[in-house]
Amino acid sequence: MAGIWGLQNPLAVLLAALMFPLSTFLLLVNHVYVLLVPQNNVRRHLLRTPRFIPRTILLTGINTPQGLRLARAFHDTGHNVIGADYEPGSLPVPARFSQALRRFHRLESTFDENWAVMYVSALVDIIRKERVDVWINCSDSADPYVECQARQAIEQHTNCRGVALRMEDAPHLLTQEAFLTYVESLGLPTPERRLVNSRDEVHRVLNKTHGRRKYLLQSAGGDNLTTDSTVTVLPRRTLSQTYNTIACMPIQKSKPWLLKQVTDGLKKYSTFAIVVNRTVMAFVAFHNINHGSYEALNPKSSLAQSMLRFVQTFASKQDSDSTGHFGIDFCVEQHVDAEGVQENIIPLGISFHAQHGILFFDGLAGSAQLARSYLASISPEVHNTNGIGHLSRSRSSSILFNSQEIQNQDVAFPTGTTPGIYRFGPDLQQRCLTSFARVLTFDITPTEFFNQFLTFIKHLLFWQEELYGFTDPMPFWWTYQIYIPLQHALAMYMGIRGVSKPELLRPFSPRDVTVMDQDPQTHNSEPWAR
User: Is Transmembrane helix set as a keyword in this record (predicted)?
Assistant: First the structure.
């Protein structure tokens, strides 16, 4: 089996070479069809509408599925999109070729200790040059503190609005423990966590849940910090084992132990929300199936509505100018009572990166929802009503279709036309190539391989690929015919030379350098403040 995996790079290059003529032909057919067949060109109609004001949007981290989707959404609704991203090894990234971009700016991939200052300075320069109205970061690996500082600098020294976390919110939102502590202080549910002063107290907690919950019992050091001396999962398989285990624990009032709920094994869900001035403008709940495939929950389901209410409550308790996009991960705890099966949602963590949930807002309707939600950040009359967004009918935020203003002023949900989101490359590799290799090594049966293959075909025909756009197919083609094959070819070349990883295409990460001090007041030199 190891020999098969060792052929991964040459097989990927060979497959791309074999598919090049067919994929290029299909690309040309796609382009010709778009050119010859009349399209419902909403963008052209909007630009001819006297009351419509096109905005200029800067998207950093554009070379991500989320970045591409937002670029297409703003372009389709009549706005101008500026993209910016790193290009390791100077190889053009796929997003550069998107027709949704008015212009692309390459960010310098420097590993200098002043990287963060240079990054913020570059953003401010781009914003001034392009006269940007709104900046949105779409990267899924950006350093949150740097993004906080970028928003602060951008809004202080330009007229651009930043859709990012505020610096004053960072301390209690950027780590899981800080987030859960903060959520608990808001009166919202969190995973159960308590200090116990006696063995009897442990038994009372376990008896109260009737074995429905698993707990981690561990010794605690000073300031409630856990130590590595003892870690035990309760309850055990039998009642006697549970009693014997607890009896051995040296728990006492002077040395309390920590008992916290275990969420492993519970079904996990993710959410994505766009929030403007504490108002939830757009929301989607979804879950990761496998291999980068995602399915959205029905927005009318009780589970999705519960998550929405949680997010709305969380957003409504922020400061009045809280604007950004974020995703909260949940797990679902089920138990049966006299009324049936009850589901309780428990928050696990928060991320301020752009989420795959953006991709569920597909089509022209989804583009309008995304554009309206983000551009509400520059509307002067967005107000909060119990966490549900209402957008004023102002010229600055008007996204028009057939000269009619959008009537739905509640939270925007995906229309439900997309059954799911999938990634073509990983899906092809895992469900087809890897499964076929496992058949050859007798790890799975031919029937199992056939089922995997049928799933791939279903995704190909009915699901939405995360990069492909019918009117903008070039980034998808460049990714799988040029960008990824070249990475595999360089990996082969570097492997022959004995280098473990091709440095030319090694993705740049802000964590490779020392970022700016977390307190912006400590920096007297601001090259962007000119």
Answer: yes
